[in-house]
């Protein structure tokens, strides 16, 4: 297995007495599109600033490309392109001229401008002043600026924030293309799982400075599946409980005449019904509730006090 492109070890940060990060262990695999998720104020931008050396950790370490950031700052940053919050653009200049300013500062070849304009699909609008650009176009120009030096790693803070559905779709296609056709590893933050779940390969969920989940999207989907339930209405609650427990079912709650039972798939309803009826329980209601990814995300970030945990890579972290 190749070493992660970004890894942090027990990364800790506070603004004065306000604790922001409490021992963050991120692992971003090479070649991934890693969605760094968390509600507003969770500490995502702070983490990104720490990854780019714009803030100094109170404790812990940052490694990029397998090298310690503190010792290899300049060569590391040459391999990274970043966009933090809204890109800083000269609004009276055209998109092309904004790129030209940055190109000169970086001492790059002139042809790179047309290359990045083509990648972000802004050739048609390259000569229009940026003040006439939509938010989605500004975001794409911000990505073009980050791409100028042809970095291996892109770090993007909320690239879909404020975009309408078509802007989100365009951004999704662009990020996938950058990943699959141009070989970029992409680390992006968002506070909305729904905006990025179709784009990312990996997810890290941050809440109150702690990583609640880190792993492949499919693992999060598996968590959602295993969190699905059947609600059963019965005439004899005690007998129903006994039968279900004896057959290995997990009962989440039971009150009045209703039981909530954890299931892997909808098809288990028929089996469970048969089991109860044959056991002498009359079933008057049976309904299935699948948990969506969004519900899993919300359940991991809901407002409740949780004990700090040390993150394990690619595993579900207990709240
Ligand atoms: N310069 C600062 N001084 C003091 N507190 C700050 C500073 N910058 C951010 N914070 C606080 O740190 C916490 C984390 O902020 P951060 O911007 O990292 O969160 P975030 O997850 O990126 O949120 P959002 O999605 O709203 O941008 C918030 O409570 C914020 O108010």
Automatic annotation (TrEMBL):
Keywords: ATP-binding, Nucleotide-binding, Transport. The keyword Lyase does not apply. The keyword Chloroplast does not apply. Pfam families: ABC_tran. InterPro entries: AAA+_ATPase, ABC_transporter-like_ATP-bd, ABC_transporter-like_CS, P-loop_NTPase. Residues 6-233 form the ABC transporter domain. GO terms for molecular function: ATP binding; ATP hydrolysis activity. Belongs to the ABC transporter superfamily. This is ABC transporter ATP-binding protein. It comes from Rufibacter glacialis.
